[in-house]
Each structure stands twice: as structure tokens, then as C-alpha cells.
Sequence to fold (191 residues):
Amino acid sequence: FTYTEVGVFDATLKVTDAQGLSSTDSVTITVTAPPADLVVSAMSAANNKSVREGQKVTIRATITNVGQQPAGPSRTRFVLDGSTVLGVVDTPAILAGGSATVSVDWDTRNVSGQHVIAAAADSTGVVAESNEQNNGGQLTLTVKGNKVQNSSFEQSNASGTGPASWSGESTAAGSATWSDGGSDGSKSAST
Fold:
């Protein structure tokens, strides 16, 4: 017999042999609900669509208790590319079926390209869980480098009067101009 409800139950077993002799024994069975189970149910970045090198980006993780008991306070760890710890943050107690969002700020200086940020709920193992293997989540982000567009000055703007994504202006040192005659026989900029 399987007990499907939480509670305290008395079970009695009576055994009778072929000669009609019998014996009875009783036991008290306590059935408890499965413990808490913390998972990273979602991750996001504050400016997920266009992260530029040098920006500070807030990484958020939603920690959900999919278990049937409340989970006490714990800690969530954020790791960049499997090796650099971005932070370990306090996670509040979470009721069964509830969730909490925690975050860490990531400084993207000198980290252009694609990166994976992993979050691990209950990273210090203080919450007794029904499944200790499902505590992780991850987010992949691409950090765009700060490259100068048209740095060779070769592409013309729409009117053909200067390089694309660039404008000449007068300064105390003189006026900036764009013309033929670069070092390789193409366009050049001068003052």
C-alpha cells in the first residue's frame, strides 16, 4: 500500500498460518511532503538586445521552489564562462511554488564576444532538496566590441562628400577634409 497524503497513520498487519494460528502487529507511519526543490527558472540581462563592451549589465536569475516545502534562505552564484565568479548573492526564503529574483552586475570591459553566464541556486548547499542536480541555469550573451565603423575612410557617405559615419568640422587646427591620395593610393583624411 502507498500513502499518497501527508499525515500520521496506524497500520495493522494480521497474519494467519495454515493451522489457523495468527499474529497481529501495528506500526505508526508518518508521511511527510517532499522537501523544497530550488531551480533557476529564468535568466535575463538588463539590456539583453545590445550589450556593448564597457557597459555594466545587470544579470537576473529567477529562483523558483518547485518542491512542496518552503526553502530557507540560501545563496545564488553567478559564473562567467565557467570560471570567473561574478558574484554570490543572498537569496531569500521561498515558499513552495514561489519564486524570487536575484541579480548581479557584470562589468563588460575587455570582454567582447559571446559569453555564457551560469547561475546556481543554493550554491552553498544549505537547503535540503528533493533534487540537488537541477539547481542551474544559463544565459548566453554577445558583447559587441567598440569598433570604429569605416576606420579606413574608404566608404563614401550618401552624397559622396566624405566618408560614411564621419563628418569633417573646422577646429582651431584647421578644417578636416577627405580626398584621394591615401598612402596606398586610396582615400585619406587630413586637416
Observations:
- The longest strand covers residues 7-16.
- The mean pLDDT is 84.
